[in-house]
Task: inverse folding
């Protein structure tokens, strides 16, 4: 008889207890920045010193509150997204879109080449490549939570499972994040701290991105094929009953219509877009920190919304709501790349989409509020998990053991060869990422130590940055300290224990692959290294 996997909340609380125990075993320590002057040049140095132990015990319970406080942005983001999508789901617009998409893919099967390759395979690959690029170029992470609500039902309707749906967006973006070429939040900060030209060494990074992406997509496709053939082999087959029931209920006949209020909603949104087009006729976009270009995206979007709004409203309000969803995604991309949007702006965007979807469906204000609250209630467990997981790093930070762990690990590197050294740095970054998942914070903490250390052992600073980059990326997909991972799993209704068992072999493959890709950085004359 199989042993029942504990509830996700139980697993995370046990990890909280483990973190508290570590504060009684590991001595406290802290890194402080020291400024030295060498030949009139000011240089920064990170100096470690031990501090008095701050053992954590009753703080295990207060860490839940502190975790909510620290992760409040992501928690509110999840709640607003959940409420907004509940309104959209109630309209059955997404059901309409899925049915239309499936009908379209069936028509494509009449082409022999596409039939041999598999239309569903092409769909999964294209979606994964899109989110992979988002992760590689602008570090997409928290934003993936919003797309899980769309892609999990799509995966279920195609005959796969919720793990496949999560892989299409979260895993794909994670692969791009780890093998990034232009991610300003990881590579940009790490190279800046290390004194390297921004995004130098991009040629080899591009090669690494291709290898990592192909490996990840192949792994997901092999799994998806197995589930398509035998759905019962899915580790989340029972949990996916929730999505299958939703899928069955959605097959009821949809009555197509367009109320007058939907045209009014279109007119209001079009007016707002035109005003923004006048205020911001040309937008500047950044790819990484080095490439910039300008484009009149707001006027273009306004024109498209005018034309497509008329077309979709003439068909049905359901297609108009799908248009709202599509433009919400487009504005998300524009906002992130052109205006440095983060979760507040993105949550606001989806919230507005939900409100206008309700208006277009001729819902009263009370009905919209009721639907929104139902969505918040449905998504609440995911938000609670994020708050609880945020307490893990708080316990370790308040216990002042994070810097001690880093110091002890870095001391163990000294005296090794180049391959062993870069491997140790890579291993340390992976271990640190299990508890400190913020790429920017980790770069600020570790690179001032490892960059000068690599000079002492005749190791390329670029290789050290890559060891940080890989170490920061892969384990984001498994560590329960990641608020994004716990949010994604909560939305997809995948128990953490089952996700851990599925993703662990994949993470091991990626970690080994990352080490193999690091070897050429210390053995071959690569450009920028």
Result:
């Amino acid at each position: 008889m199989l042993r029942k996997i504990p509830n996700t909340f139980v697993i995370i609380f046990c990890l909280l207890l483990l973190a508290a125990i570590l504060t009684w075993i590991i001595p406290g320590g802290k890194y402080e920045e020291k400024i030295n002057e060498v030949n009139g040049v000011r240089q920064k140095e990170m100096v470690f010193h031990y501090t008095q132990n701050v053992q954590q015990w009753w703080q295990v319970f207060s860490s839940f509150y502190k975790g909510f406080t620290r992760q409040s942005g992501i928690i509110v983001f999840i709640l607003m997204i959940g409420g907004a999508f509940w309104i959209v789901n109630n309209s059955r617009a997404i059901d309409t879109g899925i049915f239309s998409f499936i009908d379209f893919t069936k028509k494509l099967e009449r082409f022999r080449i596409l039939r041999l390759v598999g239309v569903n395979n092409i769909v999964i690959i294209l979606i994964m490549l899109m989110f992979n690029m988002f992760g590689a170029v602008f570090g997409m992470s928290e934003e993936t939570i919003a797309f899980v609500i769309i892609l999990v039902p799509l995966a279920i309707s195609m005959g796969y499972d919720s793990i496949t749906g999560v892989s299409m967006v979260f895993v794909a973006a994670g692969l791009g994040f780890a093998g990034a070429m232009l991610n300003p939040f990881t590579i940009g900060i790490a190279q800046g701290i290390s004194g390297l030209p921004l995004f130098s060494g991009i040629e080899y990074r591009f090669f690494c991105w291709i290898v990592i992406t192909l490996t990840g997509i192949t792994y997901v496709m092999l799994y998806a094929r197995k589930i398509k053939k035998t759905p019962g082999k899915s580790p989340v087959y029972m949990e996916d009953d929730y999505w299958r029931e939703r899928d069955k209920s959605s097959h009821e006949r949809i009555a197509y219509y367009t109320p007058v209020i939907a045209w009014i909603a279109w007119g209001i949104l079009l007016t707002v877009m035109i005003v923004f087009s006048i205020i911001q006729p040309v937008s500047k976009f950044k790819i990484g920190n080095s490439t910039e270009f300008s484009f009149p995206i707001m006027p273009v979007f306004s024109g498209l919304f005018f034309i497509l709004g008329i077309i979709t409203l003439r068909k049905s309000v359901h297609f108009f709501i799908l248009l709202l969803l599509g433009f919400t995604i487009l504005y998300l991309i524009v906002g992130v790349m052109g205006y440095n949007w983060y979760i507040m702006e993105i949550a606001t965007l989806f919230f507005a989409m939900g409100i206008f979807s309700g208006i277009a469906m001729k819902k009263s204000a009370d009905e919209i509020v009721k639907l929104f609250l139902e969505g918040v209630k449905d998504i609440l467990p995911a938000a609670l998990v994020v708050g609880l997981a945020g307490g893990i790093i708080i316990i370790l930070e308040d216990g002042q053991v994070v810097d001690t762990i880093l110091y002890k690990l870095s001391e163990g590197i000294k005296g090794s060869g180049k391959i062993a050294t870069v491997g140790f740095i890579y291993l340390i970054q992976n271990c640190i990422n299990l508890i400190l998942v913020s790429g920017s914070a980790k770069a600020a903490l570790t690179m001032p130590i490892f960059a000068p250390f690599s000079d002492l052992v005749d190791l390329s600073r670029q290789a050290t940055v890559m060891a940080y980059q890989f170490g920061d990326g892969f384990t984001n997909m498994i560590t329960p300290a990641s608020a994004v991972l716990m949010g994604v799993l909560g939305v997809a209704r995948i128990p953490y224990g089952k996700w851990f068992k599925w993703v662990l072999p994949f993470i091991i493959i990626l970690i080994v692959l990352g080490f193999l890709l690091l070897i050429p950085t210390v053995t071959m004359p690569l450009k920028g290294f």
